[in-house]
Amino acid sequence: EIVMTAMRSSGFALQHASEQCKNNAEIIMAAVRHNGMLLVLASAECRNNPEIVMAAVHQWGHALEFAGGACKNNPEIVLAAVHNSGFALQHASEQCKDMAEIVTAAVQKDGKALKFAGDACKNNPEIVMTAVHDSGWS
């Protein structure tokens, strides 16, 4: 209960919590809802929990960097991350970087995210046009 109270007031209190608490899904969920960046402090088990990772990327797209491999390969999670920040695409699996829907969402958010797309998407005229339309710099 003390740790949960600390999470509500300052998610950064998680850095001082025990490993047991960093493996507690309820505590980690409270922390990442407060600040998605706090996923970095979670246990590997929690970083592989799709619900926790989804909450983290909704709050801060770049939390995808700290997610487990299965979550980086989950199209729903990656799509949520790039909707928050197009540049989160850089942390996605290679498979997701080749998915037109994900890359389109990323470049709609920031055209320069095309840099992180797979070759198939970099060669897709519609995706490139979307990226250029957004930034002109892609």
Description:
This protein is mainly α and 138 residues long. 57% of the residues lie in helices and 0% in strands. It contains eleven helices and no strands. The chain has helices at residues 2-9, 19-22, 25-34, 44-47, 50-59, 69-72, 75-84, 94-97, 100-109, 119-122, 125-135. The longest helix is centred in the last third of the chain and has 11 residues, at 125-135.
Summarize the entry for a quick read:
The chain has 138 residues and is mostly helical. The chain is built from eleven helices and no strands.
Helix and strand arrangement:
Elements: H1 2-9, H2 19-22, H3 25-34, H4 44-47, H5 50-59, H6 69-72, H7 75-84, H8 94-97, H9 100-109, H10 119-122, H11 125-135
